Amino acid sequence: MASSDGNKNTNTEPWGGFEDNIIQGTGSAVIDMENMDDTSGSSFEDMGEMHQRMKEEEEVADEAEATEEETGEDGEFLGIKGIKGQLGRQVADEVWQAGKRQASKAFNLYANIDILRPYFDVEPMQVRNRLIESMIPIRMINFPQKIAGELYGPMMLVFTLVAILLHGMKTSGTVIREGTLMGTAIGTCFGYWLGVSSFIYFLAYLCNAQITMLQMLSLLGYGLFGHCVVLFVTYNVHFHSLFYILWLVVGGLSTLRMVAAVISRTVGQTPRLILCGTLAALHMLFLLYLHFAYHKIVEGILDTLEGPNMPPIQRVARDLPVVATAAMNANLNSMVVVLCR
Amino acid sequence: HHFAGLSDVSISGDIPVEGEINVPVGTPSQDKEYSTLDEPVKDTILRDLKAVGKKFVHVMYPKKSSALLRDWDLWGPLLLCVTLALMLQGGSVDSKEDGGPQFAEVFVIIWFGSVIITLNSKLLGGTISFFQSLCVLGYCIMPLTVAMVVCRLVLLGGSWGFSFIVRLIVVTASFSWSTFASTAFLADCQPPNRKALVVYPVFLFYFVIGWMILTFSPSA
Description:
The complex is a heterodimer of chains A (341) and B (220). Chain A has 341 residues and is an all-alpha fold. Chain A is built from twelve helices and no strands. Chain A has helices at 20-26, 36-39, 44-77, 79-110, 124-133, 152-172, 181-206, 213-234, 240-263, 269-293, 296-305, 312-340. The longest helix of chain A has 34 residues, at 44-77. Chain B has nine helices and no strands. Chain B has helices at residues 28-32, 41-60, 67-70, 75-87, 100-123, 130-139, 142-156, 160-186, 195-214. In chain B, helix 5 (100-123) crosses helix 6 (130-139), helix 5 (100-123) packs antiparallel against helix 9 (195-214) and helix 7 runs antiparallel to helix 8 (160-186). Chains A and B meet through helix 6 of A and helix 5 and helix 9 of B. Chain B: Pfam families: Yip1. Chain B: Keywords: Membrane, Transmembrane, Transmembrane helix. Chain B: Belongs to the YIP1 family.
């Protein structure tokens, strides 16, 4: 801990270090409860604010010195004409500095990535453990299960899903009429992650469940690990039965894990049922949609029969009878040929 | 006695005196900086090209040098990005597409991906600045651009099956080279136990670009 009061430049960390004068200067030792549950005790946001205030103080001090220097030097040499020019220059400088200060304040307020810093504070070992745990449902639903509030893993999983989706779209020859392949993939994955998280968070708020937005984002993000695995396998190995088995097993396991975590934080039968049903349905249906919306075999058959504007669920039902009728027709034809000989 | 005669020496009026009489006026700080505004355009372009070329050499032989980081510039990445995007055009799965979206897609992937990786690396506690990281990631696309040129040449002739193997090998080699080169610069600016967390997005980024190159097939 730094013990000197007047020293501003002894800090080496970017967030300002522990300086006594700054802590005394803010004057408030109240812990902001709003921020506590998400950051689990770390006061990075307070450090971010202190750092900002310190920077602003430095800027103001520098400006004061700069304007003093200019009035000191130039006034001596150039006489009356110099004073007029100096006044104009000073006004222009003041306007520039004021504008710069406004812009940097706005920038620091909205584009301050230090707000997100605590959510990326993970070790590779932790990420690996959480990935594995996302496939293992925990049966304890009478006490709230611990959900890690972290954004690195979910973001990487969403981007991995985007990459896998791109691969699937390219190999299945999907034609996107309005928009681009990349836009569709990114929009689908991020839209699912952010949109469904918000929706389930809203439902949880209605059903009085104890879960924060960050935890929901994190939970759903890690739930996409199962999706990534299934899609990676089935976009390369095209067996329908294999996909159904994987859909049930892998998708089911990750859904169960998410559902158990959410249920353990809800009280009452009806709220639990609502949350459980919605989450399970959305998660499983998303995997189904991703597989069938970008799948080569189904596209090929459908394009020969009718237009490509069929919803995905109906594509599944049509697939088997078409194959069956095609096989039956082939058999009938061969039987007719044999009979006619 | 030599010097006695010199007291009579005087400068006559018709011998010109040469020299410069200059009293510096105005703020002296402006003259201290080397002004590059007055030099001919050719010098500026040549100097920038030399800087870009030096960085290309650094990427080809990735040693731990700080030239890429100290004097960052975005000319090289822009050049590589435009070249790659132009070469990836003209090949589409469906011939009805005019290849326009492909150019924009490549651009968006490269720049958006670089921004995301930079933000991620900064959030994980890296000490590299925003534009330095953009510069490094952009320059390390060079092996993939070279692979694209090779793939295009291979596709100009030769049978299909054999050419796929060759292209696969070339693209895999260049993609690993890109990842290795960029991690040689980026991973140094991270706390030591988090290198894997920074390397993974870089790996994904170059994997997507490499895969776009590999699946490129020009429309007949």
